[in-house]
Amino acid sequence: MILEVNKLRKEVSSGDSELTILDDVSFSLEEGQSLAITGPSGSGKSTLLGLLAGLDTATSGEIYLDEVGLHKLDEEDRAILRKEKVGFVFQSFELLPSLTALENVMLPSELKSEDNPKENAEYFLNRVGLSEREHHYPNQLSGGEQQRVAIARAFACSAKILFADEPTGNLDPKNGQVISDLLFEVNSETDNALVIVTHDLELANRCDKRIDLKLGRIVE
């Protein structure tokens, strides 16, 4: 089991009261499987994704990532686990402006001291159709191109599980289809798990499993 979630709850302070963002969320995911998280805006999708990736902590409940209890780790240990096991595609790209597209994609592999980070980065930039833009900086790329660099970076870090927040949200239909196909190709090639937050029901329906959130709870 690559991911197991038990009775997850997330509350935040709102004035004098507590606001419940997620409530009693439980599910599991096997290695190699894909999962779509859907629901209207404000339903807790991105909050859940951040918790699953160890970017935030829950109020209560358990998250096991590759059999390691995230809820038992401090911030430093969660960061180590993310570096070793997690790839993340942020909705806002999170590219480093001082690095070229190639350098951005190489960075996670270099931090993990993996072999051939440059060759690996070039391969995935080519897979997302950006081999001719590898020496351009983020401010020289369109929003869709930056999204594709971010996806190449997530693929290149040899993660056991890839989390993607609206991975096709900034792409035109043609490039959105290319990236959607690529997500599932790499998922099947590597046996890595894939978790996608998306409003795109066509993309969601391609996943092995799907959970729908409404007001922070899973609905049938």
Report on the structure:
By secondary structure, the protein is α/β, with parallel strands linked by helices. It has seven helices and ten strands. The protein has helices spanning 45-52, 75-85, 101-111, 117-127, 143-156, 173-190, 201-204, and strands spanning 3-14, 17-29, 34-38, 60-65, 68-69, 86-89, 161-165, 193-197, 209-214, 217-219. A six-stranded mixed sheet has the order 6-7-8-3-9-10, sandwiched between helices. The chain has a four-stranded antiparallel sheet with strand order 2-1-4-5, with helices on one face. Strand 9 (209-214) and strand 10 form a beta hairpin. Helix 3 packs across helix 4 and helix 4 (117-127) packs across helix 5 (143-156). The relative contact order is 0.21.
Please outline the helices and strands.
Elements: E1 3-14, E2 17-29, E3 34-38, H1 45-52, E4 60-65, E5 68-69, H2 75-85, E6 86-89, H3 101-111, H4 117-127, H5 143-156, E7 161-165, H6 173-190, E8 193-197, H7 201-204, E9 209-214, E10 217-219
Helix pairs in contact: 3-4, 3-5, 4-5
